[in-house]
Amino acid sequence: MNPLVPExxxxxxxxxxxxxxxxxVVEPDNTGSFAYRPGQCAMxxxxxxxxxxxxxxSTAARRGPLEFSVKRVGRVSGALHEAEPxxxxxVRGPYGNWFPLEDWAGRNLLFVGGGIGLAPLRALINHxxxxxxxxxxxxxxxxxxxxxxxxxxxEIMENWPRVKDVGVHLTVDAANGDWQGAVAxxxxxxxxxxxxxxxxxxxxxxxxxxxxxxxxxxxxxxFADDQIVTTLELKMQxxxxxxxxxxxxxxxxxxxxxxFTYEQLKQLPQEY
Amino acid sequence: xxxxxxxxxxxxxxxxGRQAQVYAPATEDGLVLLRPWTGQAIATSYVNPVNSLKGxxxxxxxxxxxxxxxxxxxxxxxxPAPAPQVVFGGRPCDAAGLALIAQVLLEGTFVDELFRRRxxxxxxxxxxxxxxxxxxxxxxxxxxxxDERGSDVMFYPADDGYLVEAVTAxxxxxxxxxAGLLAPAPDTGARxxxxxxxxxxxxxxxxxxxAARLEGFFEHPYWEQVARRCRSCGTCAYLCPTCYCxxxxxxxxxxxGRRLRGWDSCQFKDFLLMAGGHNxxxxxKQRVRNRFLHKLSxxxxxxxxxxxxxxxxxxxxxPADLHMVAVLTxxxxxxx
Amino acid sequence: xxxxxAKLRSIAGSLLAEGRVSLFIGFGPGLEPSRxxxxxxxxxxxxxxxxxxxxCGPGLARYLLDETAAGPxxxxxxxxxxxxxxxxxxxxxxxxxxxxxxGVACRGAVDPDKARRLAGRPVFGAxxxxxxxxxxxxxxxxxxxxxxxxxxxxLACADPSPRTADTWLEEPLPGAxxxxxxxxxxxxxxxxxxxxxxxxxxxxxxxxxxxxxxxPACNCVACSLDNPEWLERTTGLADHFMFHFTRAYHxxxxxxxxxxxxxxxxxxxxxxxxNEKFMxxxxxxxxxxxxxxxxxxxxxxxxxxxxxxxxxxxxxxx
Lengths: 272, 336, 318
Prior knowledge:
Order of helices and strands of chain C: HEEHHEHEHEEEHHEHHHHHH
Order of helices and strands of chain A: EEEEEHEEHEHEEHEHEEEHEH
Structural class of chain C: alpha/beta
Strand content of chain A: 25-35%
Strand order of the largest sheet of chain A: 10-9-8-7-11-12-15
Helix content of chain C: 25-40%
Distance between the termini of chain A: 31 Å
Number of helices of chain C: 13
Largest interface: A-B, 47 and 51 residues
Radius of gyration of chain A: 18 Å
Strand order of the largest sheet of chain C: 2-1-3-4-8
Shape of chain C: globular
Helix content of chain A: 10-25%
CATH class of the largest domain in chain A: Alpha Beta
Number of domains of chain A: 2
Number of strands of chain A: 15
Number of strands of chain C: 8
CATH topology of the largest domain in chain A: Rossmann fold
Number of domains of chain C: 3
Distance between the termini of chain C: 63 Å
Oligomer: heterotrimer
Number of helices of chain A: 7
């Protein structure tokens, strides 16, 4: 079987998240879905335009169709944003490693997301909240450029805060309208919140610059490198470790990542 | 081991060509290239053809699939299986390069199906080297002028022909088809001469413990200095018999289209540019460093071999003379 | 021994020591004497390794695009480098005040591959004397006709020295009028033969972009040839025609005839013939005697209100 050949899938639903983010509910036509774990990605294609590696934002344990939350930034994401329910796309995957959930039983979880970076974390957060009793306290720190740019509004405003011992802390870079919440960049906001590193795993995802400063903030808060987990995005073409593109030193993000601990990242060249 | 007279070569290719497309070295505008063979003169005075074996087994572009239909009804067709081919006249370094690409593409969690099919459809008839070219440095990279890796049949140039020896079962089969052209070999002299051939340029280079010595060298100012002359073109990567980086892209007209996979180069400035503008290697320094560390450090770490077979094409053709021999020479001075 | 080289080292060393340039672009020692490499001296020490001899081949002008960002750069300029710099300045990609030009009188660069082939052995030195080139080998000095030894681009050269310099290493040589013999020969062929000629050559194209990335006229910040909306990434003969013809049109009237594209091409495509065809047509159609030299009113890049054709306002074909 040629791993580069996708399966045809149908867009079942399109949920607008923000002005430039939509969530696509996608069902592979033959298999219905495939097994995947939180943190893994899939190659989504619009035929005639191309493919893009996109993190799977649905949670496999919930047994629904695949969901991809996509920000409109380039050719493929632009074509997806033009698509309508019923349109065909291609899907292949899952690719990459996943969050090491098995090591996290009994620990507190701190999720730090920025913008569309909440997409891979959403798969993980929902997975963890579905097995809430396995973990200690859960805190979700999430920021976006403006209140309108916050994704998954229903989950961050309604669903997640209702779960026992879950704190959702929202911030925006710049307030507008009737925003009453915090106004701060995610790393600053995080430092102000001052979560304890004691028995806690921190998981962060966002734009490269946010990840960089968040890693520094977490270190400042006393988190050890092996307590910090992040998920990276690099340009990928094949997703299967053959096209030679997404390397950071001798590691490939599509095979050895996208999930890395800060400890692992520090062993790699700072080129991502 | 058998002996074949030089004059029998066209008959050999003709016979093998009944079942397969044959490629052989041809002279064109003063260059020697591996070209489809249709009976034309076979070039013999060359060190390495301009194009390596790579392009025949791992084409510059090839179809992954075809798609037809519109947004709501779409069907895919996988690219058809490649036709059998016989390639005569590549050198041992190129064949070793193929073996290295095979390691990358065929080993691990996933198998590159396109490469696997074409590799299995290809019979590689390698001509070993009796004379080094001015820019050959195979031995420095652990490859010999009589290296058998990646070859199906070895042809060792002898006085009036070749000593011929099958390396693989596929090679054995090919030789059986042309058994009438082969006579028992009087001795192994021609093979021994290739095996013992000295490669002067390689003797000037040190590759001992290179991967270990490169540890901690990532941030060295050397990379910035050497990268200045790089022009960020793809000459080195596209001529290289081991560079395997590719891009995947679509092309379409109306309701029909193809998804293709084709060569790319980590030296192009947009190689890692993502939609949205983030580029982890925007500077020449970073891209040049990645090229050489990939071959000298990452490839040994991941595949146990240097990502270079010392064919000398980048040495001869880089328009700014930024090539493996230059870097190895510099590293010999700069590295601890 | 090599007085020119010693003088260049001294000039470049002083420029760097006095802080008048932050970098000096020239040639330095390569793998072998016949292959000096582009060299970027940052201090007097590195300037002391500058090489200047008939093997200095690669075009240098385009490096100014990258190397003038951090401060003024010095450059040793032959005629081709000088015209390349003029191109970059005319296109407002490099400030003339950011470059300190040391002009030389170039008598042509020896092609290292041709020299080795002719001599049949490694070549250690070369001297261009009028119509002959003397090559130094381990077996003594061998003499060959200039036309067999020099880089293709140097054979048609009409610009041994830059038109302006900030200082001269030696007395500049005057420019001549460029001839287009290769184009004239090609024009005599019928359409089928011309097509066959280009098909044969372009079929070899690797699309490595060595030509584009060597060209001082291809100085756009973003190149349409990198954009799949303009040129697909497929690599069939039709795509190669598209690539090279598009490039030739884009540099038409702007090509400085430095020939670096052809020198850089790893598969020997005679790219200058395309550029020269445009030059010859511009010369003949627009009565521009030296179409490869940047000029005030560029024939294809300039509009004047009293253009004989006027501004075709209301023209429906526009």
